[in-house]
């Protein structure tokens, strides 16, 4: 049994209410850093890179009142905080909801699949 593993069952995403999300079913976040090519003729035939712009993108699935309408009306980045589990890792920053898709089945509830892009600095603690 892994004692370093984190459970998703007590994870949270707060701040998603800005797009009408009331119950989060799952979330995912990806941090990226652009690799800028700094290769020159003095690089001895090896590519050289330096860090460039950083960014965050992510998705979440939720149940809510109307994330589609609220995402379209969003005019400023919302503060999001993603917690992996109770006492786990917190990833936080501002984001714009870039899409919200409604999905429903005859034998299930309507869910909304939302994507977001980070704005400004994000923290991990």
Description:
This protein is 6% helix and 56% strand. It has 125 residues and is mainly beta. It has a 6-stranded antiparallel beta sheet with strand order 1-4-5-6-3-2, covered by helices on one side. A hairpin with a 7-residue loop joins strand 5 (90-103) and strand 6 (111-124). The longest helix has 7 residues, at 67-73. The model has no long low-confidence stretch (mean pLDDT 83).
Q: What is the helix content?
A: under 10%
State the helix count.
1
Terminal Cα span? 25 Å
Beta-strand share of residues:
over 45%
Sequence of secondary-structure elements: EEEHEEE
What coarse outline follows from CA principal-axis ratios?
A: elongated
The biggest beta sheet reads:
6 strands, antiparallel
Rg over CA atoms:
18 Å
Oligomer: single chain
Q: Widest sheet: strand order?
A: 1-4-5-6-3-2
Structural class: mainly beta
Q: What is the number of beta strands?
A: 6
Mean pLDDT score, rounded? 83
Poorly predicted runs = none
């Amino acid at each position: 049994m892994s004692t370093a593993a984190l459970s998703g069952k007590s994870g949270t995403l707060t701040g998603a209410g800005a797009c009408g999300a009331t119950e989060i079913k799952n979330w995912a976040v990806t941090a990226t850093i652009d690799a800028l090519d700094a290769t020159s003729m003095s690089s001895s035939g090896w590519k050289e890179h330096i860090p460039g712009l950083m960014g965050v993108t992510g998705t979440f699935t939720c149940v809510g009142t109307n994330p589609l309408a609220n995402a379209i009306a969003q005019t400023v980045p919302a503060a999001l905080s993603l917690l992996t589990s109770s006492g786990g890792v917190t990833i936080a920053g501002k984001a714009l909801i870039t899409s919200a898709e409604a999905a429903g089945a005859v034998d299930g509830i309507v869910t909304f699949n939302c994507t977001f892009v980070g704005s400004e600095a994000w923290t991990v603690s």
